Amino acid sequence: MKAVAYNIKNFEKELLARANGKVHDLTLISNALNFNTLHYALGKEVVIVSEDDRLDAAILDKMKAVGVQKIVTRSVATDHIDLFRAADLNIQVANTPYEDGSPKGIAEQTIRNLNLWDKGRCVGAACCCMKDCNVVPIDHKDEERNA
């Protein structure tokens, strides 16, 4: 999958690169996601954000217009994303809710979400979509074995 990650801190770069293992085409940006930096998302299917990025209806509309189909937040919280507007736009949203909340664990869960989506699978407990989908979620243990 082609993805751009915004608000990347120096310590996250290597962790995401290692977790990715050159599977996905990742662009890592230190800038926050906003109207001035949205051009980095052109041609990307996935946008990866931090909880410092504010994804209101206006930015989600623009993201959809440039082709973004999925969002992963590198946080458990999703209150920085207008989930209802994302649902209206058919943008899938995932977070990183698992036990290992360390930077390494967050990087691994971020890539696990990409891996599952790339296989057409549900991201399970990481799914934050506000609509029902036809994809049957798998449990976390299966996710780890199949990611």
From TrEMBL:
Gene3D superfamilies: NAD(P)-binding Rossmann-like Domain
Entry annotated with the keyword NAD: yes
Keywords linked to the UniProt accession: NAD
Record domain D-isomer specific 2-hydroxyacid dehydrogenase catalytic: where: 12-109
Keyword Transmembrane helix in record: no
PANTHER family given in the database record: 2-HYDROXYACID DEHYDROGENASE HOMOLOG 1-RELATED
Protein's recorded name: Lactate dehydrogenase
Natural source organism: Sphingobacterium bambusae
